[in-house]
Amino acid sequence: MAALLEADKLEAFYGPSKVLHGIDFALPEGGVTAILGANGAGKTTTLRALCGMIRTGGTVRFDGKRIDGRATESIVRLGIAHVPEGRGTFAKMTVDENLRLGSFTRRKKAEIEADFEHMFAMFPRLAERRHQQAGTLSGGEQQMLAIARALMLRPRLMLLDEPSFGLAPLIVQDIFAILARINREDRVSMLVVEQNTALALELADYAYVLETGRVVMSGPADEIASDESVRRSYLGY
Amino acid sequence: MELVLQQVLSGLATGGIYASVALAVVMIYQAIEHFNFAQGEMAMFSTYVAWSLIQIGMPYWVAFGLTLVISFIGGVLIERIVLRPLHRAPILSQIIAFIALFVIFNSVAGWIFTYTIKPFPSPFPEEPIFGTFISTHQVGVIGVTLVMLGILFVFFNFSRIGLAMRAAAQNPESSRLVGIPVGWMTALGWGLASAIGAVAGMMVAPIVFLEPNMMVGILLYGFAGALLGGVTSPTGAVVGGFLVGVIENLVGTFVPFIGTELKLTVALVIIVGVLTIKPSGLFGRPVVTRV
User: Nearest CB to A73: which of B163, B166, B179?
Assistant: First the structure.
């Protein structure tokens, strides 16, 4: 599989302090890759760096083209949908408006309407709450809305930041099942950042383990999952 | 009783002008969280543009439309050239920029057009079509304001760009993540606010006459309206503007020692009162900042 996104010596800064110290990774087209690591390892920062939301160094290529240093909105237009930590829904807007904003970069009305139907078929709860304000939804519903909104972009790559965050275990199972289905049926490549390591490794084909801004380990997801020493030293379970 | 009704109606007419100014102020406030002190002066300058266009023989409504377009472009340019480079600057730098804009517009208008008071035409006939209660111009002002508010309502609720502008003001980070160019949305907001101000200027000029300082008082009423309604709520700003117009008129008529001379004090009392008693206004929500 060809690499859809390639990061080479990626660095990231918050103000003057460097938090990613040159990490390399490649995401295969059509695959699911996980970034694992403890709190403060730089997982969220990696996603934010890919989207140009913070100051970075090194190079990032998407589909062969350099995207580092570009504005977030122009990176998004290439087909990279970021579902941020804490979901980032527009709380005061309705479910319908949130999804409409997700399709902001697209022009073909008929296709957008078809995608609306597709989303409501995939997330029936959102169809029921279509005209409700996003801020009034439950945590799980908001996560579904965030994923649906990202899909309205018709992304080639989805960046998912802690999709399990703050959700009940049963809902987490649902969400991960849906993510697997989106990857399989809609051929959307994914990069998932997760603290729930077991779950992430189940979904992913390949994983990178970060520690304080460096890649300390990478390999096929099943190998990482079965490697006892990795689990103990970096993933803590 | 008739006097009350008459004062309420004419209060609504001036209130429409305050509502427009308040709306312009709130639109910018939502995007950048500061009051644009130059909003009134920009509106005054737009009115001079309209006056010049009418002087060279343009029919009123053509000049009106063209003034809106010029004001819109001017507003966008001011954001791009003056405010954009400062958008990460400390608050005081931005406020200084607003004050600079205020002084520049005021002096340039005086320099080009002189400080002589000029009459500005009303597009509405002078005959009192609606009886002796209210002048035709006042009815026209209310009408123009309502039409403009209707257009803005449809734009913000049903158009793609309007939705994106609301999103950008509400949550800039998430907006970028769906591909909205947030900086340009702010610039569009400036353009719209500038055009809304131009409408207010052209509607008030036949009443107060055209001169470089004509909007200073109006802006204060606009601020009072925005604060009363709640600076975080465009609907609130409009309602607040109308309310201030009515309150100002009623107080001016029925509280003997205020009369017309102390009317402006009413605006200041409202500003201070709202800020002391309910800073979020009637429709606003409290602004909470994490520090």
Answer: B179
Q: How far apart are CA B213 and CA B199, in angstroms?
A: 17
Local mean pLDDT, 10-residue blocks, chain A (237 residues)? 84 90 92 89 91 91 91 93 89 93 92 93 93 91 94 94 90 92 92 89 92 89 82 68
Determine contact, residues A176/A34, Cβ cutoff 8 Å.
no
Domain that holds residue A187: 3-94+156-235
Q: What is the dihedral of CA A88, A91, A92, A98, to 10 degrees?
A: 60
Using an 8 Å CB-CB cutoff, list residues of chain B that contact chain A.
160, 163-164, 166-167, 170-171, 173-182
Residue A106 lies in a domain: no
**Number of domains chain A is built from:** 1
Distance CA B184, CA A71 (A): 13
- Domains of chain B, residue spans: 15-215
pTM across the whole model = 0.88
What tokens does B128 get?
A: 């009192």
Percent composition of chain A: helix, strand, coil (DSSP 3-state, to 5): 40, 30, 30
Across the beta sheet with A55-62, the strand order is A17-28, A3-14, A55-62, A65-66
Could you tell me if B168 and B185 are in contact, meaning their C-beta atoms sit under 8 angstroms apart?
A: yes
Name, in order, each residue with C-beta under 8 angstroms of B69's C-beta and a sequence gap of 6 or more.
B195
Interchain CB distance below 8 Å, B167 and A153? no
Output the domain CATH number for residue A229: 3.40.50.300
Look at the block and give the residue holding tokens 């609606």.
B130
A76: which chain B residues are within 8 Å (Cβ-Cβ)?
A: 176-179
Q: Could you tell me which residues of chain A have a Cβ less than 8 Å from any Cβ in chain B?
A: 51, 53, 71-73, 76-77, 81-82, 84, 88-93, 97, 100-102, 104-105, 149, 153
Angle ∠(B175,B179,B180) on CA atoms, nearest 5? 55
Q: In Å, what is the CA distance from B96 to each residue of B83, B93, B122?
A: 11, 5, 35
Number of helices and strands (H, E) in chain B?
Answer: 11, 0
Q: What is the ipTM of this complex?
A: 0.90
